[in-house]
Amino acid sequence: MTMNRRTLGRLAATLAVACSVAVPWAALAADEAPDALIKRLSTEVIGTVRGDKAIQAGDLNKVIALVDKVVMPNVNFRRMTAAAVGPGWRQASPEQQKRLQEEFKVLLVRTYAGALAQVSDQTITIKPMRAAADDKDVLVRTEVTGRGDPIQLDYRLEKTPGQGTGWKIYNLNVMGVWLVETYRSQFATEINARGVDGLIEALVTRNKTNAAKG
Fold it and tell me: Distance (Å, rounded) from C-alpha 179 to C-alpha 201?
């Protein structure tokens, strides 16, 4: 239940948060372009983190609460979980799907929170977006510069139904590797070996281990 590239996962989480934490998306203008949204939120969150001494001091509980309250409502989490679980999602009962979402959320919240505490001197550049005005599913490409080589960071966003509900992230690509697909390969191994309940149990164990470390 570990990512093949620990650094990749940490970076993905850090930068996902950097582009997600700010005001609730439901309060944003419905006609705000997704690339403009990513740019604005990135600027806001980096400024907030740099000015928060508690986060800089490593107060993980405070960061977890922040991520849980602000970040997760702004992600299409059911779609993200279903994509990460893969074909096993259709095999799962409604109760199992609920448990998978709960445990996957805990896993991502702690990952995001731990990475958010490490945000420092990154600068994010938004690349020109190739999308039609009426597209409901778009790719926002960015480049992150700071210490070391520039990092490719791409977001998949969807336009949520209903007026004023805006855009939501459902996948993230770091250096050519999609985060959901990385988890999918791990989850498929668990499901093939022990079924959906086995995956749930593995997530519970992973989350307990992470909580003990934190």
Answer: 21
